[in-house]
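R.M. (postdoc): so does anyone remember the format we settled on? I'll just put the C-alpha cells first.
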C-alpha cells in the first residue's frame, strides 16, 4: 500500500464542505484526477496540466477508482473541527 502527498488551495468560503465541493468540481472539470493524471505535481498553478474531464461524472470516476483500490481528491470527504483541529474523513464506496 502506498500513498502520494498532495495539497490544494481554494478561495475561502465559510462553509468548508462547500469549499471542498468547489475544489472537487474544479479538479474534475480540469481533468486533474486519477487515472487521467495519476501523479500530479504540486502545487497546482495556472500552468498545471488541464486535459479536461474524461468521465461523465465524479460518481463514474469513483466507481472506477474503487474497483482499482485508488482514491484521490474527488473522493467524498467529511470535514469537522474539534478543539482547534481540522479533521478530514474519506468516504469510499456508495457513490
Amino acid at each position: 500500500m502506498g500513498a502520494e502527498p498532495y495539497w490544494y488551495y481554494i478561495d475561502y468560503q465559510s462553509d468548508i464542505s462547500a469549499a471542498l465541493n468547489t475544489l472537487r468540481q474544479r479538479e474534475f472539470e480540469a481533468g486533474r484526477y486519477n487515472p487521467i493524471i495519476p501523479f500530479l505535481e504540486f502545487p497546482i498553478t495556472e500552468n498545471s496540466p488541464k486535459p479536461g474531464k474524461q468521465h461523465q461524472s465524479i460518481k463514474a470516476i469513483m466507481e472506477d477508482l474503487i474497483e482499482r483500490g485508488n482514491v484521490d481528491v474527488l473522493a467524498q470527504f467529511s470535514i469537522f473541527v474539534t478543539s482547534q483541529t481540522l479533521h478530514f474523513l474519506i468516504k469510499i464506496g456508495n457513490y
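R.M.: ...and that's the designed sequence above, right after the C-alpha cells. Also worth knowing: The two ends are 23 Å apart (CA to CA). Residues 16-91 form one domain.
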